[in-house]
Amino acid sequence: MTNVTDQDRVLIFDTTLRDGEQSPGATMTHEEKLEIAELLDDMGVDIIEAGFPIASEGDFKAVSEIAQRSKNSRICGLARANFADIDRCWEAIKHAEKSRIHTFIGTSPLHRAIPNLTQDEMAEKIHETVSHARNLCENVQWSPMDATRTEWDYLCRVIEIAIKAGATTINIPDTVGYTAPLESADLIKRLIETVPGADEVVFATHCHNDLGMATANSLAAVIGGARQIECTINGLGERAGNTALEEVVMAMRTRNDIMPYHTGIDTTKIMHISRRVATVSGFNVQFNKAIVGKNAFAHESGIHQDGMLKNRDNFEIMRPEDVGLSGTSLPLGKHSGRAALRDKLETLGYEIGDNQLKDIFVRFKDLADRKKEVFDDDLIALMTLDDADDHLQLVSMKVTCGTGGQAESTVELEVDGQDTIATEYGDGPVDATFKAIRAIYPNKAHLQLYQVHAVTAGTDAQATVSVRLEEDGMIATGQSANTDTVVASAKAYIHALNRLIVRREKTGPGADAREISYKDLT
Amino acid sequence: MTNVTDQDRVLIFDTTLRDGEQSPGATMTHEEKLEIAELLDDMGVDIIEAGFPIASEGDFKAVSEIAQRSKNSRICGLARANFADIDRCWEAIKHAEKSRIHTFIGTSPLHRAIPNLTQDEMAEKIHETVSHARNLCENVQWSPMDATRTEWDYLCRVIEIAIKAGATTINIPDTVGYTAPLESADLIKRLIETVPGADEVVFATHCHNDLGMATANSLAAVIGGARQIECTINGLGERAGNTALEEVVMAMRTRNDIMPYHTGIDTTKIMHISRRVATVSGFNVQFNKAIVGKNAFAHESGIHQDGMLKNRDNFEIMRPEDVGLSGTSLPLGKHSGRAALRDKLETLGYEIGDNQLKDIFVRFKDLADRKKEVFDDDLIALMTLDDADDHLQLVSMKVTCGTGGQAESTVELEVDGQDTIATEYGDGPVDATFKAIRAIYPNKAHLQLYQVHAVTAGTDAQATVSVRLEEDGMIATGQSANTDTVVASAKAYIHALNRLIVRREKTGPGADAREISYKDLT
């Protein structure tokens, strides 16, 4: 970057693992969180909000391990406005090279009414808690939740208190996705002009997409003076989601003429992390999603003759390569060797060791035997490894179905080392198969989501099946890819069950992971 | 509406059937276009861009029939800057109660270079073609394609020419999704201030979502003085799509305090048309899509205890009912009668006659026998009737699959009245079944997309399967819902094949529906 001053640098604060992971149904496993955190770190995210340590043992462990493994990113944990939350948060993040405590409280009239605090009582609470956080950690972010609906005078007053108490970043959340660009820019601008000490801290913007304007509102806030954008990969998040990282980053890059700001993000890593977050969260990205949708760079063939091929600039404002989409890439086949496989996987963003390559090569060969051409997307599905399949394993299965009555499924499972077979009937092959699995391993998990996507075109394509199960408030998602949809369904179901079992063990009796609700709080 | 003047009225111009339908893979059948047009008309869309009449015989027929059936909406057809296009367009729309010719030309340097016209030559062409259109139709819209990258002076000059030649609406397209809110507002404002005659026409904004800002850019244009927004349902459209109708309409409604404009849209019809467009286009809406996503109004249960239930306003800026989402609605069951079914279908937006009800009731009973509870979403899937299944019909099928080798599928089809059986083997039950269908009815259609969604939760849920086939540049999408995924797959495939056959017949030899490419042109 040339011709830019430090004033033009916008910090990217990613909350995929905190605000994103809390969308109904997007729960991730511990290992998935570590993987996503590593990808965020690698792509140049400045601050990773890794979780809400006091919410559960699982959240604490995830934040703690991410903090210890972090390389360049600052690791942040969330805490409500009380000492117990803040202490627990510090406990989780303190081993990070760079750490941050993020504490918040709802300051709008509606939110003040919940704990039934007066303006003065809440002001005192803010002073105490921010001071406490700052005594533990030199980097403290404070958020007045529902800021856009807080009285102007009171908002200025509490921000001043937070700054005096030691907050280094002031985040202005648009909690309900209510604001619009002019208003968003104006709010930040006026706060910076009005609040004493505002020039000593970084102002951040945290937008939700309820009215479809999160990206524009975040960028407007930057024009107004904010220098940190809070966002998530794919815009993951409760309701209509948070600001999408890929959109704000690519907008500032593409329209640098009118938005002369820069970030530390390596944009070529966008597609890979987008795919991983879609897979582990079970939240697919729609075809026409900006930047990362399947169609985002796809032009109907007709146009090519008219304009596209004559001059690429006619219709392209970004190049697919800029976001890590490889151009026309040749498929692999059964004669492709290990080196070719590794090369291709590296282009797709996977760094793999020799042992892992050996494993993947076996799976690749098996797939290439069944499929003439193995495309990039097939390989991406192949890399979705089943990581927690310890308790239950599919040994074999046979299904008969059709129009003549009920489907029949015979499933052989290995449960903790012991083989069991069951045959069940159901409304279709998937129902019968899931019943057979339940006959072998009784459970009361409820099927919340069942989705099948063909990975590539053609009838010999692999199908990726996603299954989401819920049991006593705990949610687990399982995935599997196979050319046989029914086998993939069984494996995805077993994958989800295995994760539920792991989660049950980790949580232990009484320690419900969902005990503390902080969904949507900032 | 009270306290509003005519100056506050923003016209909604829907181009789902033109710019939306042209996204790669979103092709709709004739019947689907008629249905969507009727829903757009019913919901209060001011102008429906129904297609591009000269592009193909199919486009012409669709526009023509939509024009004849229109009730309140003005019906618009697209035409390039030549007399043949304009004449053909007029031919298609002239029987509408209210009609509009929309003609366009690319005015930016990049686009002028394609036909190799000088500024003067293009100006002359614009004068001639707009005059010609206005001689045919009293309502003419003109668009300088790629306006946001056209030289300012030249842009003012050609707009003045178009107004003088009789254009009644001037549309400013951001063809490549390049602009940002401040720039979008400023452009419209300066054009209205600068161009002689600007006060006599309506200015329109047409945004694309490549940088995730289409909604904000469209609303900014309105603040700048535009009084027509061009948009599509679900933001359907090429690449990252067009401005989403539901977002701009709900944003103006929700933030009427800072955007004091109103539209004629009945917002309670949004969810129904959103679902229909998603189904017929095969473009699913992501969970976290603003307004119409499955999660848009979903709060993680945890939060309810804290704030949601105490005060609904804390987290809700829109009510689900406002967009036509019924609240907690009780499922139907096998004891539900015809009246209950009709009531429920009406709440869901379906108006059905007695004969149709009879038909649907049979299907409903059949489903209720297999499923304990029939939810709203099950009924919506049930209403996705197979409308073109004349040539091929599934008589019966039987499939065996599992882990022990290839899947086997025996399919019995009635082809134009004659029964044929075939057995084939494949990589999974779907592959084997599709092969068996191809053995009976040989074709070279290529499977572009295969998707399965469980309609509701639970293992006895219906699966909705979408299949997209491509043959010689023609695309057809088929859907089917069944509790047996494999049966639904076969039916969806047959549905798509039947549509391809109908399309082939309609198009006839040599008359390729894709002959003229106008994709993405505005």
UniProtKB/TrEMBL annotation, chains A, B:
Homodimer. GO terms for cellular component: cytosol. The keyword Manganese applies. NCBIfam families: leuA_bact (TIGR00973), PRK00915.1-3 (NF002086), PRK00915.1-4 (NF002087). Mn(2+) binds at D19, H206, H208, N242. Keywords: Acyltransferase, Amino-acid biosynthesis, Branched-chain amino acid biosynthesis, Cytoplasm, Leucine biosynthesis, Manganese, Metal-binding, Transferase. It catalyses: 3-methyl-2-oxobutanoate + acetyl-CoA + H2O = (2S)-2-isopropylmalate + CoA + H(+). GO terms for biological process: L-leucine biosynthetic process. Its cofactor is Mn(2+). It comes from the Bacteria. Belongs to the alpha-IPM synthase/homocitrate synthase family. LeuA type 1 subfamily. Its EC number is 2.3.3.13. Residues 10-271 form the Pyruvate carboxyltransferase domain. This is 2-isopropylmalate synthase. InterPro entries: 2-IPM_HCS-like (IPR050073), 2-isopropylmalate_synth_dimer (IPR013709), AIPM/Hcit_synth_CS (IPR002034), Aldolase_TIM (IPR013785), LeuA/HCS_post-cat (IPR054691), LeuA_allosteric_dom_sf (IPR036230), LeuA_bact_synth (IPR005671), PYR_CT (IPR000891). Residues 393-522 are annotated as: Regulatory domain. Pathway: Amino-acid biosynthesis; L-leucine biosynthesis; L-leucine from 3-methyl-2-oxobutanoate: step 1/4. Catalyzes the condensation of the acetyl group of acetyl-CoA with 3-methyl-2-oxobutanoate (2-ketoisovalerate) to form 3-carboxy-3-hydroxy-4-methylpentanoate (2-isopropylmalate). It holds the Pfam family LeuA_dimer.
